[in-house]
Amino acid sequence: MSDRDIDDFEGDNLSDTSRMIPGLPPYNMEDQLLPMERRSTCGCWAWTFLVAAVNSLVFLLNFLLLASIFAVVLLPTIVVVYFGFQCHSRVLHSTAYYCKTVLDDNSSSALIILGFVIMSPLIVVAMAVYCSLARRLRLFMCFQPCTRAVYKGVRWQWYEEGGIRGCAKGWNMQVKAWV
Q1: pTM to 2 decimals?
Q2: Where is the signal peptide, in residue numbers (predicted)?
Q3: pLDDT per residue over 13-63, tens digit each?
Q4: Distance (Å, rounded) from C-alpha 131 to C-alpha 64?
């Protein structure tokens, strides 16, 4: 074997001066080709509070939408289980007219069981409705990244897409979800 063949086997052909990538590339390549400028300490705290307030408001709106959808979809289960527990003699044993004439202990037990049996499919339906609505309205795009508080010049995500009206343009009426 020649000396050249031995050198090829001994080590990598990379030089010691090859350039390594110092870190991850910027989050958004179009906007941040240059390094961004950091905010002052007071400005950083103020923007942190603003971003946290916006994210908390978006979370609250998402939670209220989720709770209202679940309340509407699970209303039959709530009503059936309520009447079952209200008229059963070992639970509440109400003196209402319908408890004395229509519902006895066996029918109250049947209502309780029926309510808990239909709860599972209705939870799936409620979650599918919420996920479909959240995707169409792009609700999760309203959350803002924390880098907005640290660096200057980071735009609001919904601002670039046309604001609230930009969400309506992105609606796709042909979207179907299989559950």
Answers
A1: 0.61
A2: none
A3: 555 555 554 554 455 545 554 566 777 778 788 888 888 898 899 899 999
A4: 14
Asked which of 4-8, 62-66, 71-75, 128-132 is least confident by mean pLDDT, the reply is 4-8
User: Which residues is 38 bridged to in the sheet?
Assistant: 151
- 54 in a structural domain: yes
Q: What residues contact 80, with CB distance under 8 A and at least 6 apart? A: 111, 112, 114, 115, 118
Answer yes or no: are the C-beta atoms of 133 and 165 closer than 8 Å. no
Amino acid identity, position 75: L
Provide the domain count of the chain: 1
Domain membership of residue 78 (yes or no) is yes
- The range of the structural domain enclosing residue 77 comes to 38-156
- In terms of Cα–Cα distance, which of 62, 73, 29 is closest to 134? 62
The answer to the question of residue 10 being in a domain is no
Is pLDDT of 2 > 80? Answer: no
- Checking 108-116 for CB contacts under 8 A at 24+ apart, the result is 108/83, 108/84, 109/84, 110/84, 111/80, 111/81, 111/83, 111/84, 111/87, 112/80, 112/81, 112/84, 112/85, 112/88, 114/80, 114/84, 115/77, 115/78, 115/80, 115/81, 115/84, 116/77, 116/81
User: Facing residues of 151 across strands?
Assistant: 38
